[in-house]
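#lab-general

N.A. 3:47 PM
ok so I finally got the sequence cleaned up, no stray characters, all 78 residues accounted for. can someone with queue access submit it? mine expired

B.Y. 3:52 PM
send it over

N.A. 3:53 PM
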Amino acid sequence: MTEASCLSQHLAEPREGHLIAVYKIFEYLSLRLKDSKGSIVFNGKSIFMDYAIFNDVDRAEWLDFYHDAQEGLPIRMP
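B.Y. 4:20 PM
back already:
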């Protein structure tokens, strides 16, 4: 799970090496699932997410910790 989490950080600027890493993760999972007679299922349905729950955060209380924080954006971002 850690590898997939780390790999998801590269979604903004994917490279060929990231795709190879994804293939290796799926290869590992498929081998593990064959041993347990499991399967991988991809669901293409979109889910409903209530973004209102993220608006309850008091942003002022976080300024003590992250007063100069900015989102790092890729160069030449569309």
